[in-house]
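Following up on my earlier thread - several people asked me to post the actual chain instead of describing it. Fair enough. Here it is, all 193 residues.
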Amino acid sequence: MLHLVHPDSGDIRYFGKTLSENEAEIKKQIGYSTGSVSWYPRKRIKDMTDVIKRFYDTWDEEAYRKYLQLFQIDENKTVLELSEGMKVKVNLLIALSHRARVLLLDEPTSGLDPFSRDELLGVFRQLKEDGIAVFFSTHIISDIEKCADDIVYISKGRIVAALPKPEFIKSYSEEGESLEETFLRMERGEINA
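Reply from S.P.:
Thanks for posting it. Predicted structure:
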């Protein structure tokens, strides 16, 4: 989705434009996070941000200050001083401060305690209300149940289903079955569609 691996066929489109032909323009509008911060662990957040913002002509200092306060991040702390949940929030802070319209997050809640995970899912819901698309991969089914609008179910490298959550449940879940039970059954190859 970020053109890090070139597709064998088809194309990736954002905002009605192909990524391959408009990569620089599109990537300015995308925020990406792997769920943790591993860069310059002894540098203060403020010092890293001062360098990072130079790469974005769309940097919005007002948005940076807004999300700094919303996420309760002390920019004078180093990455080493942050909890795993705060590291995820720093990644989001950076992405949102350059006016990203789409967030691509790889396992953003993995390794977080239940309170931090719930708090972060609340942030995702708020971002959605603010018009920002949040696309995240997860193996934590309760995260999907709490905040997903759409589900893209991938098994063995293939898209099995891509539907709004209610339609996914109607198409694949059996009566009284939880979403987790549905996914487990589907992984065993017992698909009802």
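The first strand starts at residue 13 and ends at 14. That should answer part of your original question.
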